[in-house]
């Protein structure tokens, strides 16, 4: 299977997927990495791994529709079986999501349905939560609302700030996301009737 990864920044999740493919833990090929930001460090990670690294700068497009249409066209030229959002910090149009429905994955740094959107770590702290975490889910047109595949919890400590908590969550992200991509590429994970199904079991 062809995996295409969309990023906006550091790309630590991308790196984890690159490493897992190199280690034979994901049976697939990273066909391309696309960033909406020219300065994303993840583009360098892709280049270092010999993966086509493309910048499609959203600032050079008039609106969301035209950006997403261009993104779709670029992506489709790599014939993706799986589109992985890895810190891609843009809301996607329903047209885009529908086009890749069932093969579009996202990682979100909260225990969904809690804290959809941004600033999840600070919101968990402000709310006095004792647990926080991450969710990997299929993307549907509802923002951060698609069926959850797997979640991982971490503790929140009293001296945490958003930075220390984010670090604790991200330490788990780099183990969980490659595993999900591995399941997907092995044909074990699908989305049916808006539900995530792994090995025939509804999650
Ligand atoms: C991760 O925390 C992810 O959950 C969120 O954005 C961050 C991206 O980090 N959506 P990186 O670019 O993979 O290092």
From TrEMBL:
One GO CC annotation: cytosol
Pathway annotation from the record: Purine metabolism; IMP biosynthesis via de novo pathway; N(2)-formyl-N(1)-(5-phospho-D-ribosyl)glycinamide from N(1)-(5-phospho-D-ribosyl)glycinamide (10-formyl THF route): step 1/1
InterPro entries per record: Formyl_transf_N, Formyl_transf_N_sf, GART
Enzyme Commission number(s) from the entry: 2.1.2.2
The entry's keywords: Purine biosynthesis, Transferase
Marked site positions, Raises pKa of active site His: 144
Binding-site list for (6R)-10-formyltetrahydrofolate: 64, 89-92, 106
EC class name: transferase
GO molecular function: phosphoribosylglycinamide formyltransferase activity
Binding site residues for N(1)-(5-phospho-beta-D-ribosyl)glycinamide: 11-13
Record's catalysed reaction(s): N(1)-(5-phospho-beta-D-ribosyl)glycinamide + (6R)-10-formyltetrahydrofolate = N(2)-formyl-N(1)-(5-phospho-beta-D-ribosyl)glycinamide + (6S)-5,6,7,8-tetrahydrofolate + H(+)
A single GO BP: 'de novo' IMP biosynthetic process
PANTHER family documented for this protein: PHOSPHORIBOSYLGLYCINAMIDE FORMYLTRANSFERASE
Name this protein carries in UniProt: Phosphoribosylglycinamide formyltransferase
Species in which this protein is naturally found: Marisediminitalea aggregata
Annotated gene: purN
């Amino acid at each position: 299977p062809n995996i295409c990864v969309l990023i906006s920044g550091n790309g630590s999740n991308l790196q984890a997927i690159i490493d897992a493919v190199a280690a034979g833990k994901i049976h697939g090929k990273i066909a391309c990495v696309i960033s909406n930001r020219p300065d994303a460090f993840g583009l360098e990670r892709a280049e270092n791994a010999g993966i086509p690294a493309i910048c499609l700068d959203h600032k050079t497009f008039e609106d969301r529709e035209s950006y997403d249409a261009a993104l779709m066209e670029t992506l489709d030229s790599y014939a993706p079986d799986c589109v992985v959002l890895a810190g891609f910090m843009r809301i996607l149009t329903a047209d885009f999501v529908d086009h890749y429905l069932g093969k579009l994955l996202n990682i979100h740094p909260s225990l969904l349905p809690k804290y959809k959107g941004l600033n999840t770590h600070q919101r968990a702290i402000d709310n006095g939560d004792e647990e926080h975490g991450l969710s990997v889910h299929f993307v549907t047109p509802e923002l951060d609302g698609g069926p959850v595949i797997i979640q991982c919890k971490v503790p929140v400590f009293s001296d945490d700030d958003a930075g220390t908590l984010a670090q604790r969550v991200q330490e788990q992200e780099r183990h969980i996301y490659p595993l999900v991509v591995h399941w997907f590429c092995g044909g074990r994970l699908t989305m049916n009737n808006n539900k995530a199904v792994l090995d025939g079991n509804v999650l």
